[in-house]
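EI: anyone free to look at a 116-residue chain?
SC: sure, send it
EI:
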Amino acid sequence: MEISNSSTIQFLKKIGLYVLIGFTGMFLIPIFAVVTVGFTLCAAIAIIGGLLRTFGAEWVSMDLSFYYEIPRAFSLIAAILLSSILLCIAWLCSIGLRKYLGWAGAQLRNSRIIRK
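SC: here you go
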């Protein structure tokens, strides 16, 4: 029984693509998902902390360094600034995750590893 060279090459390309998508997905999907959810929660917590500190909670501290504390009047502004940075990072990670999943799905459909 003889196997043609082109079918062997196609098979090896499919296996290589499957391994590449599986290996990169093993790292990218959990990291992007955890960063997206984690930074979104941290942004909400920062806003809540800024509100609490602005309205008199003594146990909430906002320090820029060991020697400089953010004044109470600017606590909410600092919290909003920090939250916007965190939300931008979370948004970029969610876009990266969607693009990766779209790319991986397109590659798998084009190589006919997944059959409809």
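EI: The chain is about 75% helix and 0% strand.
SC: 👍
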